[in-house]
Design brief:
This protein is mainly alpha-helical. The protein contains 12 helices and no strands.
């Protein structure tokens, strides 16, 4: 419990923990301001669930970066060696870091979503969006919010797993970006039976919903979640085994 509390406290005071969700909120506020200046009228209640699906690749990448930073920074600054000198049980250390990464993803996405909805509600009352603020929340928005927040937790875990394996935030993010933007989409088009079962593409489909571009490559939402969670569990197991057996002082 002391290790878990220490990891939560360390995550709480890292700037990137709050920088990612605050940056997402700032982007939404900027869009509201731009819409206000253009003088157009947007039906926010209908557009917001679709917007959450369309932006899910960016949300997934940002929260993968958040998870990678939790582990990668400690390898870069030698902090992981100090942690293991206090708590030598490596499996426990790795699992706690991954659990904290998942919590950071879910809480950060929930924070960003709540403040974004509040900003759009203000825009509905005094700005460019049509309708009353009370009409903003709907079953579609609720389902999209759950998908995005849960997906952010999974993305954060995948980022932390990549950093555990690569021992570097930069290397982890480069690998995830190449897989997300190039390898898996190409495989999904060239060899659908293989590419459509990739972890990142499945996660994007699960977060984006049935109308997303990724969903058309992967299949149904249930299959997407099953694939994403199954891959995540396997990669977590691999990362924990590697971390428990590898000399963390080697680069």
């Amino acid at each position: 419990m002391n290790l878990f509390a220490a990891e939560l406290l360390r995550a709480r005071y890292r700037r990137v923990t709050w920088g990612v969700p605050v940056g997402l909120v700032a982007a939404v506020i900027l869009l509201v301001g731009l819409a206000w200046m253009t003088g157009g009228e947007w039906a926010a209640a209908e557009m917001l669930p679709l917007a959450l699906g369309d932006t899910s690749p960016y949300v997934a990448w940002f929260f993968a970066a958040l998870g990678a930073s939790l582990v990668g920074a400690e390898h870069s600054n030698g902090g992981i060696t100090r942690v293991l000198s206090v708590e030598p049980r490596r499996v426990r250390v790795a699992l706690v870091k991954l659990v904290v990464a998942a919590i950071r993803g879910v809480v950060g996405a929930s924070f960003a979503l709540a403040f974004s909805v509040a900003a759009i509600a203000v825009g509905m009352k005094w700005g460019p969006f049509t309708g009353a603020p009370g009409e903003l929340w709907s079953a579609e928005l609720g389902a999209a919010a759950v998908r995005v927040c849960a997906g952010a937790g999974v993305a954060s875990v995948l980022g932390a797993v990549a950093a555990l394996l690569a021992r570097s935030t930069t290397a982890a993010l480069v690998g995830l970006t190449v897989m997300m933007a190039l390898v898996e989409p190409v495989l999904a088009n060239v060899v659908p039976a293989v590419g459509s079962r990739g972890p990142l593409l499945a996660l994007l489909a699960a977060m984006g919903g049935p109308e997303s571009a990724a969903a058309s490559l992967v299949g149904g939402i249930r299959d997407s979640w099953t694939t994403a969670v199954g891959w995540s569990a396997g990669l977590v197991t691999l990362a924990v085994v590697v971390f428990s057996r590898r000399d963390v002082t080697e680069v």
